[in-house]
Each structure stands twice: as C-alpha cells, then as structure tokens.
Amino acid sequence: MIRLFLLVVFALVAGLPARAEGAVILAVSDGDGTLAPGREIAANDVLTVPAGATVTLIREDGEIIRVDGPFSGVVEPAVTEVEHGGEARSEDWEALGVFLTGSGDADSALGAVRHADRGADFPVQADVWAISVDSSGPRCARPGALSFRRRDARAAVRFSVRADTARSGDIAWAKGEHVLRIDDGFRLADGRMVVSLDDTVRSFTLSVLPDEMADAAPGRILVWLVGRKCTRQARAMIDALHRGRSPADTLLSNP
Residue 105 above 70 pLDDT? Predict the structure, then answer.
C-alpha cells in the first residue's frame, strides 16, 4: 500500500502562493540502487520506488515528502500559501545539494545520509538540538534550554561552558550520562562558545535559530542547519524525517 506523507512548510511571501520546481532526495532505504540522496526529481518526472523501499524528498519550498514503495508516478503536492519562516536562501539550498552528494569538503561528505538503514560514518544522534562535545566546529541551537551530548560516558567529568553572552561553570557530568542539560536560562547568541570537560577544551561557532523560524517546519530548519554547517544535527534531522518520527516530539523539542 502506498503511503505518501506530506509535511507542509510555509514561508512568508506576502501571502502569495508559491510552487517549487521539483524535489531532491534526502534519504533512501533499501531499493535497487537507482535512487540516491542528492538526486533531483523534476516537477513532471515519474518517481519509481520499488516494493520495500522508502524515499524521503525535500522540495525547494521546504516541503518534506516521504514515499513508501511500491510507487510509480508524479509526486506533486498541492500548491500552498507560504506564511512562516521565509524562503530558503539560495546558497543554503545549494549547500544542501553538496551535503547530500558529498561533492564538497570532507565535513559535507561525512554528513551525507546515503542509506539511512545501512549505517553511517558515525552514529546519528537522536536529538537534533543536542550540541556534540566530541569535537570542535560549527554547532546550532535554539533559544531556551541547552543540552550537550558526548559519545564516551565511561567517566564523570567537570563541565563548564562560556560564551560572549553567558557562562555556566563547574557542573558535574555524571558517569554513564551521555546528555547534559542546562536549564538555567543560558542566553544564546551567534558567535563563539567554549566548553571544558576536565582538561579537554572544545570551541564552537554557534548559530542560533532566528525568532522568525521558531514555528518553521522541519524542512526549512534542515536547510538552515546545512547552510550553517551543523553537519551532525542535519543528519539527525534527516534520519528522523526518514524514519517517520514525530516532528513535535523528536525534531523540534528542546531536551
């Protein structure tokens, strides 16, 4: 049975209707190898998904489409008015294509979710908004509660975080705990953030989700994450979308 799931994304364009020119494949499960992330599907192209396969696509207007095979036909969601979140910047959309195909730098290639059910270069984190402390680099966050994630939780550590706008220091991160939550109203802003785990220091270039995107749907936020090189978080978003997890519960909730 064909199940076509649509998550409609809105963007503010003076209340006028808008239509994207096509879609791009985000992730593929199973299949015969003819479909791969980064492949463009034009508006009038016939999409063929074999039995047992699942394909997740994103349109340039941010709409997410999840198709379970067997399916063969033109996937063309209804035209919608665009209201929230603004249209994706063209450079962000182009960055998404590079991210999916791995045709850019190593960081982009590592982030590509080629086949969500066949493993990846490193484990996909469950929470989109958890900031990984396993390495330095770009990270993205939402205003509000702040959470950090570590892969190795075999030992307890003393943790501290500081940024231009706030700091929080000497927090006990218990043994066996992979996620640490800071709920003391830590004020976030774009810029540099530094964290310490005992004697280990990580430095992040932090991008904070703009207020106007607070109610944006997952497709719009995915493009924003990729545009700011938040690789692991973008992979977490794609993985959740492809597996059909609830956006309200999994994608956009603060921990």
Answer: no
The string over 24-46, giving b where at least 16 C-beta atoms fall within 10 Å of a residue's C-beta and e elsewhere, is bbbbbbbbeeebbbbbebeeeee
More confident residue, 89 or 95: 95
Find out whether 223 and 92 touch, Cβ atoms under 8 Å.
yes
Q: Name the residue among 11, 6, 1 with its Cα closest to residue 220.
A: 11
Sheet containing 3-7, strands listed edge to edge, beginning at the edge strand earlier in sequence:
3-7, 64-68, 54-59, 22-29, 40-42
d(CA 57, CA 65): 5
Q: What tokens were used for 5?
A: 């799931």
Distance CA 83, CA 77 (A): 17
Token reading at 234: 């973008």
Give 90's contacts (C-beta < 8 A, 6+ positions apart): none
The H or E element containing residue 197 is strand 191-197
Q: What's the one-letter identity of residue 5?
A: F
Please report the beta strands in 113-199, taking only residues with DSSP state E, as ranges in sequence order: 131-132, 137-141, 146-149, 157-163, 167-173, 179-182, 191-197
* C-alpha R_g of the chain: 19
- What is this structure's pTM? 0.76
Residue 238, SS3? helix
Both tokens assigned to 199: 């004697």
